[in-house]
Amino acid sequence: MSTPTISQRLVVLASVATGALVLVVLLGWLAASALDDALGEAFEKTLPSVKALSDAEADTLRIMLGVRSLISASFNDMDGEIRKTEEAKSPLAARFNEYEKWALNDEDRMLLQADKARAEALFATLPPIIEKARAVERIAQMAEECTAAASGSADSARQLDALAGSMQRFVGSYRL
Questions:
Q1: Please, is 28 exposed, middle or buried when counting C-beta atoms within 10 Å of its C-beta (0-12, 13-18, 19+)?
Q2: Region 108-114 average pLDDT
Q3: Which of 59, 107, 127, 146 is deepest in the core (most CB within 10 A)?
Q4: pTM score
Q5: How far apart are CA 80 and CA 95, in angstroms?
């Protein structure tokens, strides 16, 4: 067997280099395709689901803020605080329904169902809180009326002090 000539060696070398180049291009194309699929998945499912959860969290915080505002609201804006709290309930439920189509697996769906149940439990607590806030508002209005009626009289002042103490204990029983 004879040794290959220089031209034969160059042809083999060029063939091996071309084969290696084709292999590198093929591997690069497969990696780029996998990256494109991963990015497509992220833009189609992951980002919208993260946004839906983030919005649901913001809605939950809005409801919590509304409840705290109800507890400490000045009575001039009680109706507005009740309306804002009630209006935040619908978007929260909608966010959960929106997220449901992006749930990744059974565990994710179970967590979503648990959060939905917690939201419903929160919604069930709102009417009693609103009712108590309204009662506190009525008591405060009655105290203002008593103050207006009793102004100017020393005897009325003593009675007013007694009434105010009684009202404070009464209002204290409605603390949420």
A1: exposed
A2: 86
A3: 59
A4: 0.55
A5: 23
